[in-house]
């Protein structure tokens, strides 16, 4: 097998797959490396907000919700959304994105291959060394590429269960007293329901988060399933995407939302923009600039929310009112 590529992408999550798609049928040689045997599955609730509206997903795979059921300190609010929220299973999303590139002659996809070390113009993998002109780190929240660049991360955590189909409502529970700035989600998919808790580890530990979630499930009579608990970090600390010939996208770039943990849309948008930037270095990446503005607003709001319990209540109170407005959904990425 050849060992020299114009572009090497580490990680075939939504960011890496979307980035690879930009080189489809071009004369740029691409190597996409994924450590897993199957492309797609990931610990994730698969919720897609208004930010994903620019991307089409097959109706057969995605579910759309025009109403959000929001519990704020036990009080139920039914919110009609301007932009519907969708859910998509991560296997389905991965396979859908993979289908777009799998037959491209210029894109080589290596599964079951782990990148172990990065050096200038070369990477070492479990299948040997490969040389690159451009390297794209699309390797998620524990990114090796990010570590190679010496960048710090700030992590939130999602802890969750896959339950049987128990509801058709898209539900979010927020309770500053119980969850601080975190929340519990219930996201219905085609064949199952995803339930979990999003939290910042400085607020409480994973053990405490699990206790809160289990208690919530018990109180709501969802405790009849004993599925495996899963957890994963989410990097929301953005410090740049372009570092000479090395690029970071998605969670590797810290692009996920600090407030909600949403990262799929950010991964897709950054993957697309960085792909275009590699093809044309003068490309200004307008869509990436837009999500960076949203990230800035989220950072300010998160700083406010972290100050105190009272601020969390104020933030939630106003979010409840504002989420019904198109401008707010668009500008804060809900
Ligand atoms: C519990 C939980 C719930 C979430 N729910 C939502 C949600 O509802 N909506 C939403 O938008 N976001 C959600 N997120 C966030 C979302 O999962 C991520 O933001 C998104 O997956 C980021 O995509 P990515 O392509 O950047 O990274 P990833 O999806 O993490 O993909 C990275 C890929 O790189 C591969 N990889 C990593 N290291 C290497 C290596 N050394 N060599 C080779 N391959 C490697 C991995 O196997 C993986 O396939 C959730 C996260 C968690 C933890």
Question: What does the model show?
Answer:
This protein has 334 residues and is an alpha/beta fold. It has two domains: 4-42 and 90-153 and 235-306, 3-Layer(bba) Sandwich (FAD/NAD(P)-binding domain), CATH 3.50.50.60; 47-87 and 154-233, 2-Layer Sandwich (D-Amino Acid Oxidase, Chain A, domain 2). It is 30% helix and 29% strand. It is built from nine helices and 16 strands. The chain has helices spanning 14-21, 90-99, 144-148, 176-179, 206-219, 264-279, 286-307, 309-322, 326-332, and strands spanning 4-10, 30-33, 47-48, 63-72, 75-87, 107-110, 115-119, 122-125, 128-137, 155-163, 170-174, 183-188, 193-199, 230-235, 242-243, 246-248. The strands form two sheets. Strands 1, 2, 6, 7, 8, 9, 15 and 16 form an eight-stranded mixed β-sheet that branches. Strands 3-5-4-11-12-13-10-14 form an eight-stranded mixed β-sheet, sandwiched between helices. Helix 1 runs parallel beside helix 2 (90-99), helix 6 (264-279) runs antiparallel to helix 7 (286-307) and helix 7 (286-307) crosses helix 8 (309-322). The protein is globular and about 60 Å long. The model has no long low-confidence stretch (mean pLDDT 93). Bound molecules: flavin-adenine dinucleotide. Residues 10-16, 33-36, 42-47, 114-115, 138-140, 144, 158, 160, 196, 232, 234, 250-252, 256, 261-265, 267 line the site of flavin-adenine dinucleotide (FAD).
């Amino acid at each position: 097998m050849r060992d020299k590529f114009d572009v090497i992408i580490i990680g075939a999550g939504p960011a890496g797959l979307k980035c690879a798609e930009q080189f489809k049928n071009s004369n740029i040689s691409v190597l996409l490396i994924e450590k897993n045997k199957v492309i797609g599955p990931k610990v994730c609730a698969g919720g897609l907000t208004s930010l994903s509206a620019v991307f089409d997903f097959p109706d057969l795979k995605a579910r759309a919700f025009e109403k959000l059921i929001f519990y704020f300190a036990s009080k139920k609010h039914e919110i009609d959304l301007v932009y519907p929220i969708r859910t998509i299973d991560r296997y389905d999303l991965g396979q859908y994105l993979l289908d777009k590139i799998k037959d491209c002659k210029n894109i080589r996809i290596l599964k079951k291959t782990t990148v172990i070390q990065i050096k200038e113009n070369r990477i070492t993998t479990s299948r040997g060394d490969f040389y690159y002109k451009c390297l794209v780190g699309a390797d998620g929240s524990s990114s090796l590429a990010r570590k190679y660049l010496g960048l710090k991360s700030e992590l939130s955590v999602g802890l969750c269960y896959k339950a049987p189909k128990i509801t058709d409502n898209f539900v979010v529970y927020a309770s500053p007293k119980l969850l601080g700035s975190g929340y519990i989600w219930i996201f219905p998919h085609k064949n199952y329901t995803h339930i979990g808790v999003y939290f910042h580890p400085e607020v409480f530990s994973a053990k405490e988060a699990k206790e809160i979630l289990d208690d919530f499930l018990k109180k709501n009579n969802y405790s009849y399933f004993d599925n495996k608990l899963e957890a994963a970090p989410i990097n929301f600390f953005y410090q740049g995407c372009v570092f000479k010939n090395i690029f970071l996208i998605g969670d590797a770039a810290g692009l996920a939302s600090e407030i909600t943990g949403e990262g799929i849309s950010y991964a897709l948008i950054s993957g697309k923009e960085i792909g275009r930037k590699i093809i044309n270095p003068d490309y200004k990446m307008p869509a990436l600039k837009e999500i960076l503005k949203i990230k800035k607003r989220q950072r300010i709001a998160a700083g406010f929310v972290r100050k105190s319990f009272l601020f969390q209540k104020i933030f939630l109170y106003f979010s409840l009112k504002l989420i019904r407005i198109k401008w707010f959904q668009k500008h804060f990425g809900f």
